[in-house]
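Complex record, two chains
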Amino acid sequence: MTDDHADGTAWGEPDPVAAPAGAKAAVTPADAADAARLVAFGLQPKLGPARDQEYAELLRRYRDDPPFARLADAVAAGLGLVVLEVSPRAGMAVTAAEDSVFAVRMGDYARRASADAGDRFLHGLAHLAVAAMAFPRPEDLADDAYIGRVTVNGVDAFVRQACRRLEERAAEQGENTDPASDAPGLEAAWRIWARRSATGATKDARRLAGSTTGIVGKAVAFLTDSGFLQRTGDDSGGTYRTTARYQLQVRDMAGGAAMAELLELGIVPVSDGTASLLPPEDSDDLELVADAGLPFHS
Amino acid sequence: MDTVPPQLSAGPRPAPGPAADEGLARRLRALACTAPLHDLDARKANLAGEYSVYGMAEVALAAIDLVTLNMDFDTGADHEQIVSRLIPRIAAQAPQRPTAEHERVARWVLENLINVGSVDRGFRAVYGTFAPDGSYVRRDYDFKLIEEVPGYGGAVYLRTTDEAVNVLVGALDTDVTSAQIAAEVKLEVLINRGRLADAQLAAEQARYRTVQYSETLRRALEATRRNVRAVDWLNAVPDMIAEALDHVADRYRHENAILTNIRRARDESEDPEHKRRAAELVDIVKDCIRRHTQLQSRLLEAGPLFRAEQDRQAFAAPAARAGLDLYGQLVAPVLPLPLEQALRVTDAYFARGTGLRTPVSVRVADLVDILLTPPMEREHLGAEMPEPDLIATPDDSRFSEEQLASAMELLDLPSDAPRRLSGLLAEARRRDPDLPYLVALLAVHAASPPVGTAYRQGEQKLLFAVDDGTELDDPEFGGADLIVGTALLDAAGMAADRTEAA
C-alpha cells in the first residue's frame, strides 16, 4: 500500500491516491501560508505568472494538489473574492464579490458620478462599451485565444453611431425625444451620451475629463490598472489590447449581471433593435439565444 | 364607480393636436439655434472694457462660415487658424483698437459658440408642446453650433454641426440631397442669364451643401469600417457606395459643365467687376470638385477594407460555445431605455466589470515620516553644457558678398527699361573682371524665373530674361543675347488669392 502510494505521487497522478492521503494529513500552517500567498498573487492583477517563478510554482501546486486548491479557494472566499479561473495564462484570476472590501465603488471611481445620475450612467456605459468594442462578436467572447483591441476614440465613435441610429429612427417615427423639463430621469439614455461633447480643448492640453472621450479614457486607464487591458500605443486617443482576465471577468461576471438586471426590467434582448444592427447573420443570433436559455421565440 | 365621466363642460381642446404642433416645435428649435448669436450681442456689455463697437453676431456667423469651409473630410478646422482668420474682420470693425483686443474678441466669440462654460459644451432651449392627450409638456432641446472633435495625434479640431449649417445656409429643415440639386440648378440658370452676383451666392450655398453631404457620407463610412456585421454588407452598403459614386460622378459632370460656363463668362466678359466675380466663382466650383474627388477616393477604399474584414471575421473556425453578444444583447437594448432604468443595468455592469482594488491603508508611523520628509529639491537648470569648440571653416565661395551686391545692384533694373545681356556684361567687366561670370549666371537663372516661389512668398518684383534670337557677341561668353528685365508683381492680389485658396 505504502509503495503504491509513493509511486502514485512520484508519477504525478493526483486524484485517486493523493487525495485521500491529503485528506488524512492535517493542513499545516505552511500550507495555509502558501494558499494565502497564491491569493495574494491573484490580488496583483498586473503580475503575470510567467514573470514570477514562485507564482508559477504555486499555480502548479493548485493544479496538482486538490486539498491545496480547496484551501486556496477557501482563503479567497473568506476574503470576499470570487475565483474565476486558475490557469497558467490567467494566473489566479480572482475578482471582488459584491460588498467585499476589494469591490470598486462608483463614488470612489468618479466623484461627480455620485451626485449626477447622468454622469454615473456615462461612466457605466463607457465600461460596457469598451467591453462591447473589445469583444464585438459572441464568438470573440467565447474564444479563449481571442485578443480584442480597442481605441479610446473608437469606443466613443461607436457609441455615438449607435446613438445616431436611435436618433434617426426616432426622427423617422416622428417621435419628439426632447425630454420633459421636470422629469430628467425619463430622458432616453442615448441622448445623454449624444449630448455630451466628444472632446474639448483644455488649458494644459490634457483630455477634458467631462467629455465622452475623457470618460472612456478614464475607463480604459482604470481597466489597465485592473490588469484587464494593456496599452499598446497612442493612436486614436490610446490603443489597448485585452487580457485573459478581462475576458473572464466580462464573460463570467459582468455580462451575466447586467443581463439579469435587464431581464428584470422586462426587456428581453434580441429584438428589432438588434436585428437592425446585425442583419445578415440572423441564424447565428437565434442559435445563440437558444443556448443562452433566454425565453425567446421569434 | 371610481372612474370620472368625460368632462364635457371642459371646453374646447387648447391645441389642434400633435401633428400641427410638430411644425411649430421644429420652427421653435430652428429659432433656438439663432439664440446664441443674439445672446452674444446682448452679453458683450458685460465684458470688461468697451466692446459695443463690435458686431458679435456678425463675427459669430463669420466664424461658423470659416469653420464650415475649413472642415476637412478627416478632421476639422484648426482652432488657432479660425481665430487668426477672424481677426481681419474684427479689425475692420474697430481699426483703431489694439490687435490684442481683436484677438480677445475672436476667442470670446469662438468660445461662446462652443459654449465652453457648460459641461456638455452645448446649448439648451426650453419649449413647450401639447402631448397627444392634450396636456402641455415643457421639453429641453439640446444643440451645439460648433463642436470639438478629436483629430490626428490627440489634437482638437472644430466642426460645425448640422444645426449650425442649417442656420447658416438659412434653409431650415430641408433634405440635403434635394437642396444641393436645387442650389445647382439655380446656379446654372443664373449663369445663363449672366447674373453673376446672384450666381456667386448660389455657388457658395452649393459649396456649403457639398460639405454637409460629404459629412453625412463620412459618418456612414466610419460606421461600416468599425464593424462588418453592423451593416448589411450584402445589399445596403454596396448600394450606398454605388449611389454615392453615382452622385459624385453626376455632380462632377455637373460642376465641370458649370466651370466651363463660368470660365467662358470670365473670359468673354468686358466688365472687370464681372470678370473678378466669375474668377471667384471658378475657385468656388473648383473647391466643390476637389471635395467630391476626395469623397470618391474614400468610397473606392471602402470595398477592399470590407473584404479584408470579412476574411478575418467570417472565415475563422467557429467557437465551441456561444458567448454573450455584448452589443446586441446589452448595449443596444440599454440605449433606448429611460435613464432611470438604464442606470440599473450599467450600475450592475460597473459593479462586476471593473475588477478589484486593494484598499489603501496608512500606518500612523508612515504618515509621520511622509509628512516630515522635506520636498525634493528640483534641478531647474539641468546639467552644465560643455563649452563648444568652434573651428572657423575657410570661405571657399566663388564670389564674395561685395561682388554679389554689386551684381544685384547692376541687375536692379527699372521695370519699364529692360537691358541686353551684352550691355550688362560690358558694364560688369568695367567694375570687376570676375563680375561678368556672376551676372551671366544670374541672367541665365532668370530665363526660368521662380514664379511659384515668388507667388508664395509675396515678392514685389521678379527678375526675368527672354531670348529674342539675337546672338551674344562677347569675348568670354557665347549663346543668346538675353533681354533682362524686372516684372512687377501684384503682391496684394496674390496675398488675397492665397488666403482664398487656403
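Note: The beta strands of chain B are 77-78, 123-130, 136-143, 146-150, 156-160, 419-420, 461-466, 483-488.
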